């Protein structure tokens, strides 16, 4: 989560904040260009490193932390390609959860990525596209953060590089790279924040408002939750600035509000129908059943703990305090360095004071309904104990994710601290006096002292960041789909308007391999069930399709690893469920529970055919 903070009272080209130092002379274009290329190259290498385990066998490896999420996003890339190839409405799909379908706007759909990249997905396949995009999204977020910091906040390219690297590859961001690329696709957020903080510029309110509206509209199709977090962060930043600079705020308020109006109008014009579809289209829902996310608050010990996917991380620790997500996990050295940096900068820097406010507000907000400490839920109420579960927009939020704003604030703080050290190194040393009584040792001693302190500062920041260097994401092997599926052997069995029913039926718990059958064949056949959020009978959001009697029987058989006694009612219900799913063929491929599942389906539907490498039940005559 990138939250660069600039002083809106300054011209956008200025990089000094409340120091009284004039802007430095412009450097030759070649030097910044070379530094920019090196920074982006380093970020690209980091992106490759993080995804390295996938590339060992990209066709058959998924995240070992969130394998089902990984498969869902592969399916999303296939959805984007299918929508473009068949010119279908990408906001809805009937290729999963047949016959009801899935509201893609009401789910994490990443349409702003999967649709533009559809040609590459058609060429390379969703597995390769997933791995490529994941590393690219991490690197792009670091690059746009670097660009924003170097152009609008800090003078030192080194400071911008450190801040950009943290904002793109912070432990909390890399954690989400385990199967959730939408939460690492933050490359627009630094641009959005910097544009918000420039809305009050004289003579540019129309252009700034238009640019903001376009960025916000695009971000809606990437990750609405991160956009909401960014909007909340910007609100806190603007209020904190207004309190500190009331006169400048009054002078710019008119232009700022006018630009906000333009931006809001543009964003609404571009996204009005998709947002309406999200809340009112088919398979839309209102809130999640039971407000399940509200209990997911950040453990206080998480702030000073090293994340699993860093060089200093320990998988055993996450079993204690990592019960939800690892969104902060800074490690104690970075927390210590951050507190010292704030203490040194907060008196002379408006951005540092704003960052302090952000850290406090969003740290407290991320705690959740009960304070958790070292894996133990205490009796102390957190702020979310007083937030109604059904509050619009907030009802879908997970408290721990508010700490991603703290991640952004820490990244900017690191850039400010590094820049302050670099500026101190460029401070002019008074020329020594001449003559017999001249004390030529004092300036040299002062210069040496500043040099030692500056090097100590660099070393402290480096020592805090090195333990957070990311490790390659853990990956696991997964069996390929049956040749019957990938070769198109299913085509004679599945006419238009009918479905292929894989066993087990895909769900949020079971059927990960069978969900990939759809993705890796370009979604050419629809399937029942799936991995998504849809409405229950009361219109509340629930995970996955409501279980029908036959799917429940399949799952319970898998869990028990034995076939229960099958009755005529079970057989009648199986035919009814297949009729509901508009099934034409039921297919069982290689599976750890293959034997027991074959016996179950045989007891329900009769003997199976062995076709290629699958067991097949042709049910067209019965449904």
UniProtKB/TrEMBL annotation:
Residues 1-30, 427-446 are annotated as: Disordered. It comes from the Bacteria. Residues 82-376 form the DUF6311 domain. The chain crosses the membrane at residues 37-56, 130-149, 227-244, 256-276, 329-346, 353-371, 402-421, 452-469. Signal peptide: none annotated. Keywords: Membrane, Transmembrane, Transmembrane helix. This is DUF6311 domain-containing protein. The lineage of its organism: Bacteria, Bacillati, Actinomycetota, Actinomycetes, Micromonosporales.
């Amino acid at each position: 989560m990138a939250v660069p903070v600039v002083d809106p009272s300054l011209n956008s080209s200025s990089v000094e904040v409340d120091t009284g130092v004039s802007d430095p002379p412009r450097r030759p274009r070649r030097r910044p260009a070379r530094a920019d290329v090196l920074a982006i190259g380093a970020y690209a290498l980091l992106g490759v490193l993080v995804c390295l385990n996938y590339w060992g066998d990209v066709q058959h490896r998924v995240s070992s932390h969130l394998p089902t999420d990984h498969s869902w996003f592969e399916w999303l890339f296939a959805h984007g390609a299918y929508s473009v190839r068949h010119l279908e409405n990408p906001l809805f799909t009937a290729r999963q959860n047949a016959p009801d379908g899935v509201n893609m706007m009401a789910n994490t759909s990443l349409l702003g990525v999967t649709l533009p990249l559809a040609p590459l997905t058609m060429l390379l396949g969703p597995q390769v596209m997933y791995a490529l995009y994941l590393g690219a999204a991490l690197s792009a977020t670091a690059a746009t953060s670097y660009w924003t910091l170097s152009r609008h906040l800090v003078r030192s390219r080194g400071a911008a590089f450190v801040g950009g690297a943290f904002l793109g590859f912070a432990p909390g961001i890399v954690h989400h790279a385990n199967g959730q690329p939408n939460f690492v696709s933050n490359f627009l957020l630094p641009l959005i924040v910097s544009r918000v903080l420039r809305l009050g510029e004289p003579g540019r309110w129309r252009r700034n408002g238009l640019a903001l509206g376009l960025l916000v509209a695009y971000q809606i199709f990437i990750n609405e939750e991160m956009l909401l977090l960014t909007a909340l962060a910007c609100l806190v930043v603007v209020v904190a600035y207004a309190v500190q600079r009331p006169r400048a705020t009054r002078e710019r308020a008119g232009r700022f509000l006018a630009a906000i109006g333009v931006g809001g109008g543009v964003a609404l014009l571009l996204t009005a129908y998709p947002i309406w579809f999200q809340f009112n289209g088919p398979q839309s829902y209102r809130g999640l059943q039971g407000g399940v996310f509200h209990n997911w608050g950040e453990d206080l010990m998480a702030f000073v703990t090293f994340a699993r996917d860093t060089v200093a991380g320990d998988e055993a620790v996450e079993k204690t305090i990592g019960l939800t997500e690892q969104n902060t996990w800074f490690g104690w050295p970075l927390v210590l360095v951050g507190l010292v940096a704030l203490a040194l900068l907060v008196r002379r820097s408006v951005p540092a004071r704003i960052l302090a406010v952000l850290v406090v507000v969003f740290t407290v907000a991320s705690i959740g309904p009960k304070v958790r400490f070292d894996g133990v839920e205490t009796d102390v109420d957190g702020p979310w104990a007083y937030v109604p579960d059904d509050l619009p927009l907030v009802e879908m939020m997970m408290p721990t994710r508010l700490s991603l704003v703290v991640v952004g604030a820490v990244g900017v703080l690191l850039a400010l601290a590094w820049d302050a050290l670099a500026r101190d190194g460029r401070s002019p040393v008074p020329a020594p006096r001449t003559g017999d009584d001249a004390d030529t040792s004092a300036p040299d001693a002062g210069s040496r002292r500043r040099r030692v302190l500056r090097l100590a500062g660099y070393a402290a920041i480096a020592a805090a960041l090195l333990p957070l260097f990311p490790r390659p994401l853990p990956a696991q092997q997964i069996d390929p789909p049956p040749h019957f599926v990938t070769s198109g052997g299913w085509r004679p069995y599945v006419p238009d308007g009918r479905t292929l029913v894989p066993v087990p039926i895909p769900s949020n718990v079971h059927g990960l391999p069978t969900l990939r059958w759809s993705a890796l064949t370009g979604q050419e056949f629809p399937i029942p069930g799936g991995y998504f959020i849809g409405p229950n009978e009361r219109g509340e959001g629930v995970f996955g399709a409501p279980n029908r009697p036959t799917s429940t029987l399949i799952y319970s058989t898998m869990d028990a690893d034995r076939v229960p006694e099958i009755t005529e009612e079970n057989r009648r219900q199986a035919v009814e469920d297949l009729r509901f799913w508009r099934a034409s063929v039921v297919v069982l491929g290689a599976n750890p529970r293959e034997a027991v599942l074959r016996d179950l389906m045989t007891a329900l539907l009769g003997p199976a055919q062995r076709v290629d490498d699958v067991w097949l039940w042709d049910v067209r005559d019965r449904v």
